[in-house]
Amino acid sequence: MHVLFRLLVLLTTARKRPPVSIFDPISTPMRAMPTDIDIAMHINNGVYFSLFDLGRFELMVRSGAWGVIRKKKWTPVVQAETVTFRKSIVLNQRFTQETRLIGMDDRCIYFEQRMVANGEIYAQATIATRMVSKLGPVANEEIIAAVGEDVPADLVLPEWIERWREDTALPGARRPAPHQWV
Question: Is the distance from CB of 116 to CB of 98 less than 8 angstroms?
C-alpha cells in the first residue's frame, strides 16, 4: 500500500477520536507529503484514491465497523470509482479529506469523498464498495445488521449513480470479458 505509514498513524489516531455512526460524515486532516507529489508538484491523480481509502478506513474504525469486519473475516473492496478535480493540492499543503456514506443499492455501499482546502472543494470522488468473504459478496443487509445500526430514513442514493454504474459496469468476475484492442 502506497500510504502504509499513514495507515499505521491513522490506526492510532482514529481510535482516539470521538466515535461516530457509519452514517456520519467525518473529516480527516492531512498534508500533501513528498510521496504524494508527481512531476507537476501536486498530488498525483492516482494517489487521491489511496488517500480516499484512508478516509473510508477511518470511518470504519471510528464507527466500530472495522472490528466487526475483522471478526467476520470480511474484506472491503472497491467495485467502481470516479473522481473530479477542481484545483491542485501542492507539496506540504494542509487539507482535510471529508468522507460520508451516501447510500446503498442491492449490490454496493456508496461513499462521497472530498479533498477540501481553505474551505473549498479541490477534488470529489464517488466510490462504490462491496464487502466480500471467502464465500463471496456479503449482502448489505447482513453488513448493516452486523454493524448494529439502523439505516437513516433520509438516506437516498442519488439518481445519477444507478446510471453511472450501468454505463461503466464490466461483466461479473465469473463471466468472460475478452480484450480485443490489438
Answer: yes
Q: Of 126, 94, 130, whose CA–CA distance to 112 is shortest?
A: 126
Q: Contact 147/64 with Cβ under 8 angstroms? A: yes
> What pLDDT digit, counting tens, does each position of 39-71 carry?
999 999 999 999 999 999 999 999 999 999 999
Cell triple for residue 156? Answer: 437516498
Where b means 16+ CB within 10 Å and e means fewer, 30-69 reads bebeeebbeeeebbeeebbebbbbbbbbbbbbbbbbbebb
Alpha helices in 73-113 (DSSP H): none
107, 127, 3, 87: CA torsion to nearest 10? 180
CA 180 to chain centre: 31
Q: How many angstroms separate the CA atoms of 54 and 66, rounded?
A: 13
Grid cell for residue 102: 451516501
Q: Which residues contact 162 (CB under 8 A, 6 or more apart)?
A: 105
Q: Which amino acid type is present at position 17?
A: R
The C-alpha cell at 106 is 442491492
User: What CA–CA distance (Å, rounded) separates 22 from 19?
Assistant: 9
Of 21, 44, 53, which Cα lies nearest the Cα of 125?
A: 53
One-letter amino acid for residue 135 of the chain = L
**pTM of the model as a whole:** 0.92
